[in-house]
Structure formats: structure tokens, C-alpha cells
Amino acid sequence: MSAVLAAAESAAAESGGQGVSAGVLVLALVVLIVVVRVLRWVAGLAVRLAASVAAVAGLVVGAAGVGGLATITAVAMAASK
After folding, report:
1. Helical (H) or strand (E) element with 8
2. Is the pTM of this model over 0.70?
3. Percent of the chain with pLDDT over 70
């Protein structure tokens, strides 16, 4: 984005300080749109990755819970004999 701003400043300097040309503004808009789309894609990827990690963690915790329940049941059965 700093390259776009530098281009805008040089265009303004070349035009005698009359303002930024329309081409530079269109280029800045296109760059902004591309940056927003890339950030949205990265955010979506991060959400999917976080959901996968949460699912795996849930499976691990669930397996540990079943294992713990089986251990408690085995200890209770052994203690009742």
C-alpha cells in the first residue's frame, strides 16, 4: 500500500499539486480490494483450522473421559469383590 501512496504523491507532484490522477485512485482501489479478499480468505482458513483443532481436541477429551469411566468402573468392580 505504501507503493500506491508513493505513486500518488509522485503523481500529485508531477501534476503541480493539482491532486491525484484517476488512474492512481483506481489502482489504489484495486489494491485495497485484493488485500481485503486475501485477508478474508486467510481468516476463513484460520476458522476452518481452528474448527479442526477443536474437533480433534474434543475427540481426545472424549476418549480420555471414556477411558476414565472405564477405569473407575473397573476399580469399583474390583473393590466390590
Report:
1. helix 2-14
2. no
3. 80
